[in-house]
Amino acid sequence: MTNQTDKQWAIETQDLDIYYSDFRAVKNVSLKIEPKRITSIIGPSGCGKSTVLRSFNRMNDFIPGSRVTGGIFFQGQNIYDPRIDPVQVRQRIGMVFQKPNPFPKSIYENVAWGARINNYKENLNDLVEECLVKSALWGEVKDLLQRPALSLSGGQQQRLCIARALAVKPEIILMDEPCSALDPIATLKIEDLMRELSAQYTIIIVTHNMQQAGRASDFTAYFTMDEDRAGSMIEYGVTSQVFTNPTHKSTEDYISGRFG
Amino acid sequence: MHKSISIEKDSSDSLGTAQQKLFRNNKRWSETIIKAVLTMAGIVSIFTTIGIVFELGKESFLFFSLPEVTLKDFLTGTVWQPVIGKFGVLPLVTSTMITSLFAMLVAIPLGLGAAIFLSEYAADKTRKVLKPILEILAGIPTVVYGYFALTFMTPLLRGIFGQENVEIYNMLSAGLVMGIMILPLISSMSEDALHAVPRSLRDAALGLGATKFETSIQVVFPAALSGIISAVILGISRAVGETMIVAIAAGSGPNFTFNPLKAAETMTGYIARISGGDLSYDTPDYNSIFAIGLLLFLVTLVLNMISRHISRKYREVYE
Amino acid sequence: MKNPLNLVSTTTYGRDLNLEQRQKKATIWKALFRLSTLVGVVALAILIISIVNQAFGLVAIEDTNDRNGFISTSIKEVSKTELIQLIETNLSTNRVRTLDREEPLVERSRHDLMALVETEVFKQRIVDSYSLFGSIFTPNTFRDQVAKKHPEAIVEFKSWFTPQFLQESMSKTPELAGIRTALLGSLYLILITISVAFPLGVSAAIYLEEYARQNTWLSRVIQTNIDNLAGVPSIIYGILGLTIFVRAFEPITSGRLFGYEGANGRTILAAGLTMALLILPILITNAQEAIRAVPNSLRQASYGLGATQWQTIWYHVLPYALPGILTGTILAISRALGETAPLIIVGAATYITKDPSGLFSNFTAIPIQIYNWTTRPQQEFRSIAAVAILVLMFMLLSMNAVAILWRNKIQNKR
Q: What whole-number distance in Å separates Cα of residue B318 and Cα of residue B223?
């Protein structure tokens, strides 16, 4: 267990292995995420980046046969402790997905729903406005709140999904390649948004886009795949360091585009 | 879906005349004949519909041309006794509605519950066992259900509510068993609708810290609603058109009552009884079958069309 | 969950997520959903059990003609010659001749002769019967009941499901009744239905899938039409069959056109044609699916060699789709086997002892028999209805099992 007087990491993993039945998908990840910063996870396809991300909010629980050894600590508590309800974990640690997936409901309802089921007692209208403002969407939709969410453009939908995640007041926001389905302009908007949000929330983003990782994140973790097809983290550090002066050759190759 | 392609041998190709003769062999001519034959086969189905509409219409017209019968009395009269010239269809209609109502009271909650369980909760192994069982339930002939209603359900009801209160033939017994028969239909169509909702929606809801129940009911279910409603309407249509269960267990003889514990003949039961007996053509009894059949046909047709329309037009666009 | 641990948190709202109550609610509803599914399973089980319950059980047997008037010892001690004598003296000459023609009395087994004497001379009849579970758990209730009402009767266990059931024809006495006529009727019916519906249905499916792809007005009308017809209640098909095949086509269906002296159009032919119309939509839809499943690359290969459309269909598409079409047909047949309502309207006879002899005979079918026997008041008729149901279900289950297993085999191979 971590020493409580130490600085609290937003998330800390210790020798994390993730298995799908007997297959070890991720091995030996020990990583400390700085709170209220943007951390990006990069690496070639298939080396477990999304798997690691989804283990942070226990979304992997829904895949039959998945299990975790080692620990994942959220503010010092192991979120895989059997006494903890994963539903609670997911309220604290939110997620934005690769393809925008708003509910087929109105824009208002998309944002309000999460708060509603989580027993939010105060004014929903204010909450919805606050979240849409924080996700830089309010100006575009403030008169259209009852319109179906699916009538928005791709970039708008993704910002709506961010607003939706904010509405349940998480402390950490996980983003699984949030811009891969968006055009470059929408992508930049989201990156600006991430920067603003990181003042209040810890952001962990998995991305395929190296340039994005380079320009948008504070810390970067580089993953790669071994011969046993298990992903592991090779390098982790301040982004500028990892990009200009990587310790491993594999990292350098990936960053300079020699593969991946 | 592919487009049909017909290959025609161009007669001005560069093959020698002998070889041209070899390949031409009247292909086009026989092709046309075959196509005509097959088209006729397709058209047979149209003749069936025309036949149904025409025959029902013609005989109903004869029925309504009878001096004793007026359309108004037919639709609003509460007594059906041809012997004394009373042709009010309401007793048959109310009986059909009551039996169908009880059928849906059973089939909808249980069918939807089963659909949600199989689609959202059940493990693969469980689903592989339970689905075939429900399919068997769907394949049981209705006459067997009728037997079941008369020999099991009715004595059960009489035991529960008392023999003085429940007649040997009654609408409740038939309705409940009809519900069991329709349950698999609603369950399987609803499950398909639920299953079609993309995983990403569930992930989104769960990611917000919702329980599986909240996700299933507040996100997945509404997203699949059009398919589910379409299934329910189809179930109602099935209940209205069902014959054997009500013919065996609901009673013979029209009876205008709202008490489900009493015997009352349904529209389908009436048609079965009259045509199963001695039937002389062109009597009021004979013609009445068609009038009631026409009513039945129209009701089920409208229900089926609404069901299909809903499922097609309001199919949720998720992406 | 026991002793839930709460996550520490630095944000405010989130303190009370009402999680415990929500989880409780979630658990209750999950149980309700599971229960709903099980109701279906339980209903099926109860259905089967109640049928089996009726098909076996204790019965009370009594001689209508007290056997003591004929023999002085137990029938087991009566010699063969005496048995034959009893038969010849007490039955009409016609009857004896019929029996002898079926199999000469002298050549029959002792067991056979005893059965004959008991049934026809003593006129042994079942006067009361009991359910299977009653017979197992509370047999004495039955025995007491019998002792009161039929003091002379013997109580023994009977399986209503006997080989004789399949061999005998209808009778007014339940224990003598059999399903032979109905079985043959159903089989004849299916034969006619298939010979009409299969070619027609497959042709229509080929038309819709191979020729009509231009989405013309005609093909759309036909397709919608078929969808609508699939949902029409079966009783309407019966009415259609009545007016068209039984009445309008009477010269054909009664056979008079062909020189038979048919009385009316309520024949197997009319019924078969009606059922053909009934299953046509299902058959067409299934065949369409099978044809749709044929990979386009197969067609392209054929066309690429210069084959015509029909040649492609006949030599490549149909053979590939045939297993799927056949399984769909089997499923359509099993639907037709269980249909009752159209047959009633078209005039299936409810009491008929002659086996169907051709296209133009009056007929009955298994579901009609079940219907008829179920609606009789006597308990014993319920029992043979139950047996008939078992026979029908067996036929249906085997057909469906064959179809489904075959379909799986094809799917796995491909």
A: 8
CA–CA min distance A119, chain C (Å): 5
Q: Do A101 and B203 touch (CB under 8 A)?
A: yes
Q: Coil, helix or strand for C139?
A: helix
> Is the Cβ pair C4, A83 closer than 8 Å?
yes
Write out chain C residues lying below 8 Å of B11, CB-based: none
Identify whether the C-beta of residue B108 lies closer than 8 Å to the C-beta of residue B175. no
Enter the pTM of the model.
0.86
Residues of B in contact with C233 (CB under 8 A): 240-243, 268, 296-297, 300
Closest residue of chain C to B234, computed from CA coordinates:
C231
B89 & B167 share domain: yes
Task: Compute CA distances B51 → B47, C70, C332, whole Å.
Answer: 6, 64, 22
Contact partners of A by the rule of 3+ C-beta pairs under 8 A?
B, C
pLDDT tier at B1, thresholds 50, 70, 90: very low
The DSSP annotation for C187-205 comes to: HHHHHHHHHHHHHHHHHHH
- Identify whether the C-beta of residue C171 lies closer than 8 Å to the C-beta of residue C177: yes
Q: What is the pLDDT of residue C9?
A: 56
Whether C149 and C232 map to the same domain: the answer is: no
Distance CA C60, CA C62 (A): 7
Domain range for B58: 2-65
Average pLDDT over residues B282-286: 82
> B89-144 pLDDT, tens per residue?
999 999 999 999 999 999 999 999 999 999 999 988 999 999 889 988 999 999 99
User: Could you tell me the pLDDT band of residue C350, with boundaries at 50, 70 and 90?
Assistant: confident
Q: In whole numbers, what is the pLDDT of chain B averaged over residues?
A: 87
Taking the Cβ of residue B292 and every Cβ of chain C, the question of whether any pair is shorter than 8 Å is answered with no
Q: Are strands B80-81 and B86-87 parallel, antiparallel or unpaired?
A: antiparallel
Structural domain that includes position C244? 180-413
Under 8 Å CB pairs connecting chains A and B tally to 74
Region C223-230: what's the mean pLDDT?
90
Tokens of A252: 């350098």
What DSSP string runs through B203-267?
HHHHHTT--HHHHIIIIIHHHTHHHHHHHHHHHHHHHHH--HHHHHHT-SS------TTS----H
Q: What are phi and psi of C82, to 5 degrees?
A: -65, -40
Length of chain B: 319
Q: How many CB atoms lie within 10 A of CB A202?
A: 22
- Given this model, what pLDDT does residue A6 score? 53
Per-residue pLDDT tens digits for C131-149? 888 888 888 888 888 888 8
Share of chain A above pLDDT 70, in %: 96
Inspect the interface and report whether the beta carbons of B208 and A103 lie closer than 8 Å.
Answer: no
Q: Which residue has the higher pLDDT, C265 or A61?
A: A61
CB B95 within 8 A of CB C4: no
- Which chain A residue has the Cα nearest residue B212? A87
Q: How many domains does chain C have?
A: 2
Instruction: Please give the distance of CA C228 from its chain centroid, rounded to a whole number.
Output: 26
Q: Can you give the CATH number for the domain in which B196 is found?
A: 1.10.3720.10
Identify all chain A residues contacting B218, using CB atoms and an 8 Å cutoff.
113, 117
Would the pLDDT of A1 be above 50? no
| Residue A103 to residue B210, Cβ atoms within 8 A | no
| C125 and C62 belong to one structural domain | yes
With an 8 Å Cβ cutoff, the interface of chain B facing chain A consists of 123-124, 198, 200-201, 203-211, 214, 218-219, 222-223, 316-319
ipTM (interface predicted TM): 0.87
CA distance C37 to chain A (A): 22
Q: Do residues B189 and B241 share a domain?
A: yes
Read off the pLDDT of residues A42-73 as tens digits, 9 standing for 90 and up. Answer: 998 888 899 999 999 999 999 888 999 988 99
